[in-house]
Amino acid sequence: MTQPAASLGPVPVLPNYVDEQLVTRMGIEILTCRPDLVVGTMPVKGNRQPIGIMHGGANAVLAETLGSLAAWVHAGPDRIIVGQELSCTHHRAVRSGLVKGVCRPLHVGRGLATYEIVICDEEERRACTARLTCVLPPPRTQQRRQGDS
After folding, report:
1. How far apart are CA 32 and CA 66, in angstroms?
2. CA–CA dist 106, 146 (Å, integer)
3. Which of the residues 64, 85, 122, 124 is marked catalytic?
4. Using an 8 Å Cβ cutoff, are 105 and 148 in contact?
5. Cβ atoms 140, 78 nearer than 8 A
6. Active site residue 64
């Protein structure tokens, strides 16, 4: 039996990895996916520290997911996006409900893109500010031609 085709926003998931997606385990839902704006939500439940608040690493997963999707949409489907640097500043604890991440570009070029991701609780209070920089290598066909020279 063939597994159903899956994607994360516009990014196709390779069939062998459909059941291994971190975004599924984290409960991340993508609401908007455009080059200038990516929005997603994630539940606090299932993503907590032992003391009951949302884990800072969960913020990082949401931020990197949204920023990587924005870079992918910007660069195009024939490119493979590589995260280079992620930083997260945690402003307040979130104990329940959903958090919403809003990703907007700070710089988008041909080889590098940097995004700011703001994560808020259900009352629109900022819980985390993240910045992600992605490298946008040339399309695979260009890489092969450059390597042949």
Report:
1. 10
2. 29
3. 64
4. no
5. yes
6. yes
Q: What is the pLDDT of residue 146?
A: 52
User: What are 46-90's pLDDT values in tens digits?
Assistant: 999 999 999 999 999 999 999 999 999 999 888 888 999 999 999
Q: Contact at 8 Å (CB) between 70 and 115?
A: yes
Count the Cβ atoms, other than its own, within 10 Å of residue 65. 25
* Distance, CA of 64 to CA of 128 (rounded, Å): 13
Q: Where are the alpha helices (DSSP H) in 1-149?
A: 22-26, 56-75, 140-148
Residue 94: phi and psi, rounded to 5, are: -120, 130
Give the integer Cα–Cα distance in Å for 30 and 53: 22
| Tokens linked to 133 | 């920089």
C-alpha separations of 31 from 28, 59, 94, 142 in Å: 10, 17, 21, 33
Three-state DSSP state, 114: strand
Half-sphere exposure in the Cβ direction for 17 (13 Å, CA): 9
For residues 84 and 35, what is the distance between their CA atoms, to the nearest angstrom?
A: 19
Q: Indicate the SS3 state at residue 16.
A: helix
Q: Where would I find the beta strands (DSSP E) of the chain?
A: 6-8, 11-13, 29-34, 37-43, 82-90, 98-108, 112-120, 126-135
